[in-house]
Amino acid sequence: MKLNFIIPLALVLAAAGCNSNNSKKDVPVYLDPSKTVEQRVEDALSRMTLKEKVAMTHAQSKFSSAGVPSLGIPDIWHTDGPHGIRPEVLWDEWDQAGWTNDSCTAFPALINLAATWDRELSHLYGDCIGAEARYRKKDILLGPGINICRTPLGGRTFEYMGEDPYLSGQMVVPYVKGVQENGVAACVKHFAANNQETRRTATNSIVDDRTMYEIYLPAFKAAVVDGGAWAIMGSYNLYNGQFNCHNKKLLVDILKGEWGFDGVVVSDWGGTRDDDEAIVNGLDIEMGTWTNGLRGAASDSYAAYHLANPYLARLADGRASEDVLNDKVRRILRTVFRTSMSAEPHFGRFTSPEHFAAARKIATDGIVLLKNDGALPLNVPEGGKLLVVGENAYKMMVVGGGSSNLKTKYEIIPLDALHEVYDGKATVVWERGYVGDPTTDYNKVVTGQDLSESRPADVLIADAAAAAKEADCILYIGGLNKSAGQDNESTDRGDILLPYGQEKLIEALAATGKTLVVVNISGSPVAMPWADKANAIVQAWYGGSESGHALVDVLTGAVNPSGKLPFTVPFALADGPIKTERQYPGVREEGKQWWQEYYDEGVFVGYRWFTSKDIPVQYPFGYGLSYTTFDIADAAVKASGDGWKVTATLKNTGSVAGAEVVQLYISDKEASVERPVRELKGFEKIYLEPGESRRVEFTVGKDALSWFDAGKHAWVAEPGDFEAQLGTSSTDIRATVNFTLK
Ligand code: BGC
Fold first, then answer.
1. Which entry of 3, 316, 655, 660 is 20 to 30 Å from 255 by CA?
2. Cβ neighbour number for residue 182 with a 10 Å cutoff
3. Residue pair 130/85 in contact by the 8 Å Cβ criterion
4. What whole-number distance in Å separates Cα of residue 471 and Cα of residue 689?
5. Half-sphere exposure of 68 (CA within 13 A, CB side)
6. What is the residue with the minimal CA distance to atom 6 of ligand 1?
7. β-pairing, 59-61 with 185-191?
8. Peptide bond into 33 cis (omega under 30)
9. What is the pLDDT of residue 95?
10. Helix, coil or strand: residue 422
11. What is the percent of the chain where pLDDT is above 90?
12. pLDDT the model gives residue 4
């Protein structure tokens, strides 16, 4: 094995103060924690050979890139991300290495975090996962993901924060800060306009500047400028004709230019495609699978990476400049001095009870109550029978889904959590009802469940319906899972309906006339044409280790639901803004090497489309019920400094304590361009006791009124009338106040 940590004796002695005159003055600057990061970077850089510099710019194993052995600067360890710390993998394989001490806390999927609309919980999430990464000696966490949900079919919607750039931007900042407070770099991904998995490595996203700046860039900008992210991952796709891992406009002009990003750009694994562009267009570390990334090659070929031998050859014959290399190395060294060699030591924590408690809290607070005619909280009579139907009541979901696959210490399934609550008081019976995904392993991580099933589909339905006749109440727990074609990396979904014949099963259960509560577990929008047949509907997510407890807390009323949809649930796919193949999944054009995809809908993504075109939806963005009711009253607006203060009173008008998210939408009444009818520009989640009320206040600046004028390359707030709309979803506006920009 190569020893990467041999520090030259002289340096060790110097660092320890053991030099000839025993003074500290000879400690090399880069090893001296009292020096600034920039001083340490410059000092380390000045001691490095060209070869050492190039070695830092590319992978040396599946998840590590080189440090500087001669200086005792450790390798950089990367890890997925974004829902927990991936199990250790073999040096050069995706499969887990088989360690027995790397089972992590599985946190809820990021879409679940987004559904909490709670910035404090986002910080808690970041802090906990950052601590787990640090404990496992990881320096760069490959997450969070914040690509916008442009089509409900997107396979990785579950790993992202929904359809709105403001919500994503507000939620990503505390996550990034929480991670980095542990001396771990958050690597925000996947930059940018990477909104589908279908042909993700061969699709050119053609997006106009206004749409880019208003929809696809703001959350990344927030992560970098407000969150201070130390790393960014380039995405697989092309944007306006150039691959994103070395896209000049994205990386050089916008990220490092306009936003002043001083961190490190990491390629997606195998996303680097060109020697010369990789050198000059802003990429700092090339990570990957094999040489030529996606196209496959012999194993252990890291020396043949674009930023390895081809780079050295170009430096040798003058085609590449050392100044550009130095910029990359400075960024990489900065990452080291911010993380593993930070002046402030961090030790991390792993699978602590606090982490599982945080996972449970986040999972619970993101669960969304979509419909309730009084069937919830569950009312199972003493000695009665609760029939649970559906694979997702039983199937473990932490394993699978792609690079976010985790090995966790434990996972509470909904069925077990129900038994914990009801055993001894009522009978809980489970019927599978359908077969979805019977697999129980991913990259050699196994759940240990047996999901084999010999009954055919019609028998499964008949068995469930027969059991329903004996039950007091039916709790259906189905939805999607993380297998290919569902919520999964590298494939998109085929449609937005429930798969595996679940609709037929739900109809059969409804036909029994028993109270029917449906829980849809998914990471992306599922249309529900059967909705009026259910007495109550709950949207739950991949909740991680504590998912079962979280769901059952909401179903039983132990916790009052307060989650809000981070995306729109349409009645039908065709209702949405994507109408043509050129919009999605892209088209092949004469003479063009890659699939061309035109973002013709422009800024009209998600609720911006539905509200502007007045198209009814099944459940709107921002929507979510509670076991109590809230009222918004006494809205007011007044000028304040350069902007306005918008205030209103939120009151809990029901009989139980709970939280509501007051959402502020701005509507531009007279713009010179077509603008969405309303856009989210503020939100506050407020917890109130029954009868309690609280004044909520939003600051509205010109930025909240602006649209991006591509011609001027500037944000423009046009004088005229605006409306501040306060509501509990993007369609439930409870109060409106007007103001004028002079
Ligand atoms: C995914 C990234 C992930 C990387 C490393 C890629 O295929 O797109 O999100 O971080 O693999 O596992």
1. 316
2. 24
3. no
4. 35
5. 26
6. 269
7. unpaired
8. no
9. 87
10. helix
11. 93
12. 37
Closest by CA to 30, choosing from 45, 18, 49, is 45
Q: Which atom of ligand 1 is nearest to the CA of 81?
A: 10
* Separation of CA 111 and ligand 1 centre (Å): 17
CB neighbours of residue 647 within 10 Å: 17
Distance, CA of 5 to CA of 19 (rounded, Å) = 21
Instruction: Give the end-to-end CA distance of the chain in Å, rounded to a whole number.
Output: 69
Q: Which is the catalytic residue, given 139, 268, 487, 492?
A: 268
Q: How many CA atoms lie within 13 A of 343 on its CB side?
A: 13
Ligand 1 mutation target, pool 77, 96, 269, most atoms within 8 A of CB: 269
**Position of tokens 């906990």?**
128
Instruction: Show the domains of the chain with their CATH numbers.
Output: 9-89+102-338 (3.20.20.300), 367-559 (3.40.50.1700), 626-741 (2.60.40.10)
Could you give the count of Cα atoms lying within 13 Å of 120 in the half-sphere of its Cβ?
A: 6
Residue nearest to atom 9 of ligand 1 (CA): 403
CA dist list (Å): 392 to 396, 462, 474? 8, 18, 14
CA distance 658 to 643: 32
Nearest CA among 476, 621, 462 for reference residue 536: 476
Q: What's the confidence (pLDDT) of residue 298? A: 55
Distance 101 CA to ligand 1 centre (A): 23
- The chain-wide mean pLDDT, for the chain, equals 95
> What backbone torsions phi and psi does residue 78 show, to the nearest 5 degrees?
-105, 150
Specify the long-range contacts of residues 23-29, CB closer than 8 Å, at least 24 apart: none
What DSSP state is assigned to residue 500?
T
Q: Which of 158, 160, 403, 443 to mutate to test the pocket of ligand 1 (most atoms within 8 A of CB)?
A: 403
DSSP state letters, 109-169? PHHHHHTTT-HHHHHHHHHHHHHHHHHTT-SEE---B-----STT-TTGGGS--S-HHHHH
Q: What is the pLDDT of residue 21?
A: 44
Q: Contact, 239 vs 205, CB < 8 A?
A: yes
Looking at ligand 1, which residue's alpha carbon is closest to its atom 7?
Answer: 269
Task: Determine if the pTM surpasses 0.90.
Answer: yes
The amino acid present at 289, given as its one-letter code, is T
> Cα separation of 665 and 677, whole Å?
9
Specify which residues 714 forms β-bridges with.
Answer: 709
How is residue 232 written in tokens? 């960014």
Pocket-forming residues, ligand 1, beta carbon under 6 Å: 80-81, 142, 189, 268-269, 403
pLDDT of residue 36: 98
80 is catalytic: no
Task: Give the type of residue at 702.
Answer: K
Atom of ligand 1 nearest to the CA of 235: 8
* Protein residue with least CA distance to atom 3, ligand 1: 403
Helix (H, G, I), strand (E, B) or coil at 723: strand
Residue type, 576: G
pLDDT per position as a tens digit, 462-505 = 999 999 999 999 999 999 999 999 999 999 999 999 999 999 99
How many CB atoms within 10 Å of residue 690?
14
Structure confidence at residue 26 (pLDDT): 84
Ligand 1, atom 8: closest residue by C-alpha: 268
Q: Report, as ranges of residue numbers, the positions in the chain whose pLDDT lies below 50.
A: 1-23, 292-295
Which of 479, 628, 449, 468 is CA-nearest to residue 551? 479
3-state secondary structure of 402: coil
Gap between the Cα atoms of 130 and 105, Å rounded: 12
